[in-house]
């Protein structure tokens, strides 16, 4: 049956609306007070890999609207510093910066806000997609590479890194770099990630500082 609220919407918009209304994760996020359904992705990754510990210093890159920051805080992490190009409504226990984490000179400022080196860097960033799979893949890999470079500058020994990627071939070079600087590097697709989506998460733990991450 067509949705009553679909009048005047494009077919793509109608499909998105129907998916949102029928998505159990969207409904659960509203009921449990999460800012986005994406919170469940991090919850599931944490259950599987034990990423978040009490008192961890955490950076959340591409933090808007704040769902992953909420998860980190509710699981005992803190302080948490989130960065996004978009504004984010405040969350107690977190500091949000509107800006580009890769901008020149911002890394030291962010480390000062965090109060020291990070124990965990999270990145759920996605580019504006074009619908052209190769282009979209290259865009998200560029974001993931930037997040990895940032991690090399801010992580404490033993720290962890989580980033969204899309399925494809060009992430192999990034994974090769990561395997030289993290004891464990794994891919995961949490249940909350939509089946039709090509997104995966790369989960790296036990950081050891080397020159590999900063190599061109």
Provide the fold topology:
Layout: H1 11-22, H2 24-32, H3 39-49, E1 58-61, H4 67-74, E2 80-84, E3 94-98, H5 106-114, E4 118-123, H6 133-154, E5 155-166, H7 171-181, E6 182-188, E7 199-207
Parallel strand pairs: 1-2, 1-4, 2-3, 4-5
Antiparallel strand pairs: 5-7, 6-7
Helix pairs in contact: 3-4
Please give a quick description of this structure.
With 216 residues, this protein is an alpha/beta fold. It has helices at residues 11-22, 24-32, 39-49, 67-74, 106-114, 133-154, 171-181, and strands at 58-61, 80-84, 94-98, 118-123, 155-166, 182-188, 199-207.
Q: Could you describe the 3D structure shown?
A:
This protein has 216 residues and is α/β, with parallel strands linked by helices. It has 2 domains: 1-32, no CATH class; 35-214, Vaccinia Virus protein VP39 (Rossmann fold, 3-Layer(aba) Sandwich), CATH 3.40.50.150. It contains 7 helices and 7 strands, in the order αααβαββαβαβαββ. The chain has helices at 11-22, 24-32, 39-49, 67-74, 106-114, 133-154, 171-181, and strands at residues 58-61, 80-84, 94-98, 118-123, 155-166, 182-188, 199-207. Strands 3-2-1-4-5-7-6 form a 7-stranded mixed sheet, sandwiched between helices. Strand 4, helix 6 (133-154) and strand 5 form a beta-alpha-beta unit. Helix 3 (39-49) crosses helix 4. The longest helix is centred in the middle third of the chain and has 22 residues, at 133-154. The chain is globular, with a radius of gyration of 18 Å. 37% of the residues are buried.
């Amino acid at each position: 049956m067509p949705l009553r609220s679909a009048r005047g919407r494009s077919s793509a918009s109608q499909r998105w609306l129907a998916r949102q209304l029928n998505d159990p994760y969207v409904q659960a996020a509203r009921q449990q007070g999460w800012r986005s359904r994406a919170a469940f992705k991090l919850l599931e990754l944490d259950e599987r890999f034990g990423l978040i510990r009490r008192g961890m210093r955490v950076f959340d890159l591409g933090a808007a609207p704040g769902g992953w920051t909420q998860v980190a805080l509710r699981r005992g992490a803190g302080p948490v510093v989130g960065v996004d190009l978009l504004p984010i409504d405040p969350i107690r226990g977190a500091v949000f910066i509107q800006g580009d984490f890769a901008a020149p000179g911002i890394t030291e400022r962010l480390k000062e806000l965090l109060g020291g080196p990070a124990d965990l860097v999270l990145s759920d960033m996605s580019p504006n997609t074009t619908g052209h799979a190769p282009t979209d893949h290259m865009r998200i890999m560029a974001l993931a590479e930037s997040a990895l470079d940032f991690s090399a500058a801010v992580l404490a020994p033993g720290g962890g890194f989580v980033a969204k990627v899309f399925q494809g071939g060009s992430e192999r070079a990034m994974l090769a770099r990561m395997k030289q600087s993290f004891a464990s590097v794994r891919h995961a697709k949490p249940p909350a990630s939509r089946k039709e989506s090509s997104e995966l998460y790369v989960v790296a733990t036990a950081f050891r500082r080397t020159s590999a991450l900063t190599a061109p």
